Every structure is written in C-alpha cells, then in structure tokens.
Amino acid sequence: MRIPLALKVMLALVAVICAGVLPAQWLLRNTLRDTLQARAAGELQAHAALLAGRMRTMPDAESMRTYLRDVALDTTERITFIALDGTVLLDSAHRGAMENHLQRPEVQAALAEGVGVADRVSASDGLHYLYVALPVTGTRGMRAVLRLARPADSTVHLAEEGARIVELGLATSVSLALLLSFLAVLKLVRPLRRMRDAAASLGAGEFTVRIDVNTGDELEELARGLETVGAQLRARLASAGSGEALLGQLVHAMVQGVIVMGPDRTVRHINGVARAQLGLRGPQESERVIKLMDSAVVCQAALDAVKDPLGVDVRVPHPVSGEPTDGTVVALRRPDGEPLIALILDVQSTGALALGEVPDPRDVVTLPLREMMDRALARVAEDLEDSNASFSLPDEWPAATLAEVGGRVEGAVTETLRAAARAPGAQSQTPLTAALHPGFLCLRLPVSLSPDAIRAIEPRLAPLGGRVEVSQGSVQLWLPRA
Does CATH place domain 5-156 in 3.40.50.920? Predict the structure, then answer.
C-alpha cells in the first residue's frame, strides 16, 4: 500500500512527540506528587515540633492533653497524643477509647529515630492520612509521643490539579508542535512534488523544465540540478538527433538504393530508390526488407564489414523476382554505440534528391511533437471555422521529438491539415493519430487529398528524409524523429 510522504513525515513527528511527551507527563505527575507530599510532611513536622516544644515544660500528661484539646479547635489537622506504652490519651477525631497505637509505624519510628513519617490508611476510620510523629521530652527524658495527621486526599488532589495544569500545557505544546510540523511538511513536500513532476516530464521526453523551488537549501540545489540535467539531455539529444536526421537526409539523397539497419536488427532508414528497385510496396514491404537483411549473405557481410572500413561486396537475391542483385554492406561506426549496417545497392537513379538540397546539419534542430502539433492546429483554426470541419485528437501525443529545419516539418503538417479541412466532404471529428516507428513518426489522417496538395507537401519533407504516403481514403506523413 502506497503511503504519501507527507503522511509518513507527520506520523514520524507524532511518534517523536509522543515518545517525549508521555514519559515527561508521567515523570512530572509523580515528581509533583512526591514534592507535594514531602512539603506537607515538612509542614506537619514543623507544627509538631512547635507543639512538642511548648509541651516540654508542662508538669503532667493531663495539662498536655488539655493544651492539645484547645489547639485542636484551631487547626484542621488530626492530633493524637500517645503514651509511651501506646495508650491513646487524646485523638481529636475520636472521643471514645481507641486501640493501642504502639505498633503504628510512625510511632515506632518516632520512638527509635526521633521522627516518624507514614503515608497509609488509618486502621481506626479507614481514611488515608499522611502521619508525622515526634517524641515529647522533658527533663527526665521521653514522656509521650505527639502525632499529627493530614488527609492524604488533599495532597493527591493538589497533585492531580497540578498534573492537569501540566497536561494542559503539554497538550497546547503538542498541538502547536503538530501545527508547526504540518506547515514544515507542506514546505518540504510541495517542492518534492514539483521535482517529482519535473522528473516525470524528463522521463516523458520534455527536457525544457523549470522547477519553481526557492527554499534556499538543499531542495533548491536539487531542483537546479534537475534543470541542469534536463538542459544537458536536451543538448545531447539535439546533437544525436541532428546526426540521425542528417543520416536520414543523406540516405534519401543518394542515387543508389540504401537500407540502414540498427544493432537491434530494425530498419532505421530506406530510401525511395531501394523501394523502387526491390519492389517494396504495400503491406509486404516490412516482411521483404527483414527477409533481405536477415539473409545469411548480408549477416556474414555485416560481421566482415565491421573489420573492413571499405565495406564488403555482396550478391543478394531480389526479394520479389529472386534474381541476383549486387550491392555493398558497410558498417557505419558511431562513437557512442554499436555500428549501423548499411546495404548499398548497385542501382543508379536520376530521380533522387540532389545533394545540394540536403540541409546543413548545423541547421537541424529538435522540436517536441506536442509543441509542433499545437502550433500547426492553431494556424489552421480559421480554415476549420470556414469549412465546419474539425479533428479528433488523441488523448496524449507520443513523447517524441522531430528533426526540423527551417519550419519544413511544421509547414508540411500545417499544409496537410489545411488541405484536409478544405477537402470536399470534410467531416467533423476527423480522427488524427500518431504512431512511433524506428526513425520516424507516422501522422495519419483518414482523408483523401488532391494530387496538387500532395505535390505541395512532399518537397518540404524530402530533404529531411521524410515522405508522404497516400492510400485509398487516407494520407500518412512520415516525419523524421530526432
């Protein structure tokens, strides 16, 4: 299951906050309770010491008891006066007789250590108290034990109130931290999404990318790096596209029939002379070319041609008539890949394109298909309005770039669309499709164009190695890819 990065970061921040807040809250609660208890015990001990000091000069237990009875009227603390044998002489919370208190832990500690503190439930009334006991001394030594008690619930209540205040503060801090973390996640994720979209555009062949990231940190550096990668890819592909386009131009300009095959055994280029000489027409064209180039003679000559820069002469059977046809297999070496294999037939033609019409390779540029189609369709918009015709476009144009010189390709496409819009019987929603082929992009329209329109379009594409094919009821533009 795919979990968005923003959610992952938020969950991580929440986990970090909880890992710090929950233990802190538990420690604060316990520390606050212990602190309040120690403070209450200190107050009880100070009060008990004050009373014990005043009782030191009293002559007998009765006078002490009378004094403590008066003190009990002015305090909320429970006062217990205990004889050395554990007999309870006075308890401000009880009027009747009480059991012996000699074994009470705070009393034992007071007799043994001089002070006793206990936090426990009273055996007399079942209430929870904090006890502090001190011995009452006189000139002859220890005379009795004085014990003060305060309900522990009051301390617990104060601790709970303090804990709630702490929890409220922590909750406020956590909420603020979550809000700030959410803003931080947005600041982090938005640039990442822009760079993700830019990387997707690079993968789709759109190398002119601009990434709107101005964070002043590593994210901005990464964005600028992606833009640099796009620019370098665009420059390299433009250079490679120029070379490939120039090769196609030269192939179509040669007076001999030429077939160029790539390392993947696919035909990259084939000129009109070779088509005419070998009788390559109709749906059997691809099958016959592959049969010819995969023949044992051509395959062996291709292996030998890699070692011989002058090429290897061969005699191959004509794919239609079967008669011997002479030619030369040449390896076209490339600096960045395996060589291309070219079969040059010994057939002359006077109808080939003159070499002077082939554009200079420095003039060849790359043009994204989508950009070219948008401009061509915009130029024929007025013709479409006049004829009430329209085109049905594909949902997405193929991610391809074309070899272009001086607007020849764009002009050929524009003229084809304009002629289709003006053609007799032009229909609305005429489907316009594009398909990728080795070295070419085939743009197809199911319309019939006049011979004059075809003659106007062909000269634009021929110097670039492109061509126009017309079949019954359709026209296909083979545009050179870069």
Answer: no
